[in-house]
Amino acid sequence: MRIVFFCISFTITILLIVALGTQTWLPLPLGSFLSPQHGIWQNAESLKQDFNDRLRFPQLNGKSTVYFDERLIPHIVADNDEDACFIQGYLHARFRLWQMEFQTYAAAGRISEIVGEQAVNYDKGRRRMGMVYAAENMLKEMEANPISKAQVDNYTAGVNAYIESLATSRLPVEYKLLGYAPEKWSNLKTALFVKQMAQTLSGSSDDLPMTKAKAFFGKDAVKILFPDAPDSLEPIIPKGTFFPPPAIVPVPPPTEDSLYLSKHTNIAGGLQEADKPNPDNGSNNWAVSGALTQSGAPILCNDPHLDLTFPSIWYEMQVTTPTMNAYGVSFPGAPGVIIGFNDSIAFGFTSSERDVMDYYAVQFKDESKTAYKLNGDWSNSQLRVEAIKVKGKPVVYDTVAYTVFGPVMYDNSFPAADEPGTALALRWKAHDPSNDLMFWYYLDRAKNYDDYHDALQYFTCPAHNVVFASKAGDIAIWHQGVFPARWNSQGLYVMPGEDSSYSWQGFIPMEENPHMLNPERGFVSSANQRPVDSAYPYFIPGYYDEYRGIAVNRKLSAMQGITPQDMMKLQNDNYNVFAETARPLLLKYIKEGSLSDTERKYLDLVRGWSLYNNIDERGATIFKLWYDQLEKEIWDDEFDKAGVNRLRPKEGTLIEALLRDSAFSYIDNINTTETETLPDVVTNAFRQIAAKADSLNAVNQLTWGANKNTSIYHLLGKTMMPFARTALPVGGGAHIINAMQHNHGPSWRMVVHLTNETEAYVIYPGGQSGNPGSAYYDQFVDKWAAGEYYKAWFMKRGEGDGDQLVWKMEFDKP
Question: Rounded to two decimals, what is the model's pTM?
Fold first, then answer.
């Protein structure tokens, strides 16, 4: 990457000008950008870069040392927690400043300040979603608690100490490309970063397209197309688990059928939704007890699945103070170790996939938006005027009305709804006051299961499946967050905002969230599947993935004498359980006798495929093309007519429907005069993709690895291709344990063996430095792509001058 860096500065300039059709992203004169004294060349680092330093800051209370190993992983040894937070902030800024600040700009809806008017609608969407409002509510809670206030105050001071020391010549290259400079960090920015992660992992709802679908298909049909639980369900908490009666029994309003399910059938008819998070965001985690391992000690594993970017979302580090000794990955932008382990326990996360976001149709009194109808009267709204600064253009103003439900995200001005005078208010759990930083404060210091349990109460949104293992031998998992207690079907569709009885009626008590401690089977696991079966007493809508969970549980159930090496192999497993289910049906119903010789050749590749999505498999590519086309053949006629663009039933829903009923009514194309059968659509879908497969084969793009083209892009996207890595040799895919897709997948892999001397293996697809001119920008990528790991140096006090040490930073008062 360093060699490439010296050749790309002019290329990037040209690419940006061509791609964007403007030079507004490049306000610096070209001479300044290429200046040897101040431009991009100042960002190149020597292969022998020296990171040793002695730093003095008056904000510090004592003396601390940061020991860097050969991978540039910092191991902070501080005399007190406050100094550790300061140093963590300093290091995050030292190696990831542009990344952490850009993400908070995105969260706050301020990207137009950087790139101009093309981002105005994006910024409006973030502001109307109430991102700053949510962060302000979190900030109040953080600063009211003396522990978290000390954390964020010192973290912010550390970030600003680095910013104040930063010369223009050493600004990260992205500031130079885009022509702006960093501003001071604040505690609000940390809250904004946390809310950005909440948006990534809980900021999606299908209420609007589901409302369209209900209007077209009807309530009964929607239940078939979007079932609560699949036939193949293998929940996180095993089937048959007994759940006590619920503490809260939500009661639907008496008007539910007449108002909720009938009125506003076209409220979302022509609405174009704001950008949603990637629906593939998820993760795997599991912990096996000592009864299943070779050593007799538990092993915990985690690999969160997110968009893969440079710089990486994660920054690896160890933090040691008198109250903690934690190792793992942190978020540049927030204090603490987020996924990892300490001297006594290990912990990891998968997204809960629960729906904690609902829309309410609001009727304003007039265009001023100062009053809206509620319970037969007019209720005053709170108006928040958003001033969106736009680079090179006048300020754009947008007025957002806040109701009892939350901010009005959509109205006649953003964008137009179909029913004049009607608006959609957003109720989102992330808006509520919370102090989630306290969860990580206590978890990083936890010694046992009780400490883990006590920490969980602070974890509100986004909700996760939090896996746990300890050296005492306990393993556990808790489906944790603060979830609304809903009546059956509440929140599946847009609800009437004129009636407060449609509001959330309370929250499920933590002890009633699904959880499990030391199960008899010897392991706990989650892979974003539904947490429980239908015996659970609460309605729990969500966006679950079932097949990875099936694959994980099948593997773990068959294992004995488990080693860390077995777990690393499992995290990289490419077996396709979904294809195992779907391929027999496709082969059964295809009219093979009607195929040409060329088409039969491609059919034989699917038939002979190993069901592993390995990089050299052609059958994996043909199967995916075939099934995707089959879905289009079956669903697009009805859903296009319904005006539902982005919503379709899940892949598993279709295959299970066809397995139950080969005459499934949606097989027939409503746009043709003949009646299509399952053999017709299966065969037609294959014929269409066989021609595409032939074209791909002709240019050597038919193998799974070449077709998937695993890539890691810069946060600014494909306009920054010189800073990207493409065509990485990685298998895997959707519904596969190794959930690697084109540019989305395992963003961190961790295997922790909780023996007396903790043994941990870790890797992520990036590097510690955010500087493309550094050897540490993409240092781990090739090893990650090969499915390999580093053994973590879990440093003890007094080991800092050992063989692992490469550099040392000393921090002290002046």
Answer: 0.94
